[in-house]
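REQUEST ID: PR-0412
SUBMITTED BY: lab tech R.K.
PRIORITY: routine
TASK: structure prediction, single protein chain
INPUT:
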Amino acid sequence: MQKIEIQAQPRTVIGRATKQLRKQEILPAVLYGNNFKSLNLQVPTKQFQKAYVMAGESTLVYVKVGDESYPAIIQDVAINPASNAPLHVDFYKVRLDEKIKAKIPLVFAGDAPAVKSFQGILVKNIHELEVEGFPQDLPHEFTIDLSILDVIGKQIMVKDIVIDSKLKLMAQPDEIVILVQAPISEEELKKQLETATAGTEDVEVIAKEKKEGEEGEAGETATPATAGAKKEEKK
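STATUS: complete
OUTPUT:
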């Protein structure tokens, strides 16, 4: 696997002033990790974009700051929705002797004969798989060959995906990744959509009733748990 390096420099500009960095095609960044004091960094935007295409958010990269080189995973990238340009990047420093969990994207390659010959419908249930392994062993993606889907009802399950023996799959082996479903008529499709809409309305009614008559304990509202990896404050 090719070693991916990103040259970074310490960053003193913070807050709204980072807008000026982006105009110079410099991307604000932060490097953090467990038992590691976070570093405010800046990296050339074009260099980062090239590395991001190669690494995604699962492949190991090396963030070079002066004479130091830190092994890291691209943890999160903030994107400008208007221009699709990166606004900020988080690097999570890892240890090469400690296993981590990461979600690897699935890439579906080729054509399913059952779709072409029998007008079947491809149903993709999973778009990424979580694995556990050492950072240097994590792949960029898993490729799924669709050419084996030659009849209606054929499916590919998690256990059918060949992965490196150094990795451990966290998903259930019998979980369906993708299958070919029989074609449905317009009437059946309309009926399914109506059923789905009715279910949504029921959920909305329940939510409304709870909002009007039921408060959480001590009036508190539950919020999603923060990811375990992001324990340190980022600036």
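NOTES: Confidence is low (pLDDT under 50) at residues 203-235.
REVIEWED BY: pending
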